[in-house]
Amino acid sequence: MQTVATSKERDVKILNIVGARPNFMKIAPLMAAEAARGGIEPVLVHTGQHYDERMSDLFFRQLGIPAPDINLGVGSGSHGVQTAEIMRAFEPVVAERRPDAVLVVGDVNSTVACGLVAVKAGVKLVHVEAGLRSFDRTMPEEINRLVTDAISDLLLCSEPSGVENLRAEGAAEEKVHLVGNVMIDTLRANRERAEQSPILSQLRLAPGDYAVLTLHRPANVDDPEVLAGILDALEVIQRDLPIVFPMHPRTRKSLEASGLAERADAMGGLRAIEPAGYLDFLKLLASAKLVLTDSGGIQEETTILAVPCLTLRENTERPITVEVGTNRLVGSDPQRILSAYREVIGGGGRKPQAPPLWDGRAAERVVDVLREKL
Ligand code: UD1
Hints:
- The protein is an alpha/beta fold.
- Helix content is 48%, strand content 15%.
- Helix 5 links the parallel strand 5 and strand 6.
- Helix 4 runs parallel beside helix 5.
């Protein structure tokens, strides 16, 4: 019998997964780098974990992310329901599209749900932002990170601690690659465009003369006592320095449910706004005197922007931002927040360095690894 040789190798088909807001700035450079490199067929799947215009669509437009090839439209729910619904909706997509690999980013429920479906279907799993550990298993994201890394075929790390953590957990050396930070690719690519944002004049803020606050972790916003303590600190700070507060839907709900919304509204210097788009938010961060946050990504962004960051958590899965960046862990105790605030305002900051490979070219390195290994 004669065998017929095919003249052209088939492209490597990759299903790229996004679900929640922090995924969008990571997938943007990855989709672009995959499309630019011959031999890869990128397919984009949105789980629909975040679905609002201001939590999702705006980011696609501003970051030039192609419209998703598939939207699972899953929406909100408890962890069990949301994770299960994503799995249920994603499994037939894998069966129909038969990808060579599924690529997931970060640590949200969409990450772990699609990862589990992929490996059980015998499809290779690639995790971008692998190995980060807060060592706090009360955080849903920590569970998502541990599970996703345990089942991934390629573990692509944003900072050296990720590599060390995976080694300590016994991950095979050949799976682990330090590629740098894809979210910083997006920051560097949009820095100049963001300068044109009119947000400061719209909010009548002077550069360097306000703080930015974001708050959405369940540990901070779902417990009324913790939330009230954070408000105690904010009450003092907002008397000196206006605080802009793009408010996450979870936080808005918690403030209302706990009866603390009135107290927050009564603070003249605390200015709640709708969740901001990427460019407005980058402009707000870049011109701030300081940032208060419980987000993971913002710890990284402020490191590159050289803006002092007080992280309202006891731990971080991104230790490099504390080692070389502007980040300080201050927890949620009002006295600790205020003493760190006073130190920073008194000029107690230091000049940050950019962590290795946070140079705007991480997505290219991801694609190099994909081409070599898949
Ligand atoms: C999720 C991620 C978290 C990430 C955050 C960024 C997990 C476990 N958590 O948390 O890691 O830092 O996204 O935002 O995946 N809602 C809307 N509109 C939306 C989306 C959500 O109103 O477009 C409301 C819903 O009422 C929902 C609540 O926000 O119940 C929380 O949304 P969910 O995706 O469950 O978790 P986040 O707190 O956003």
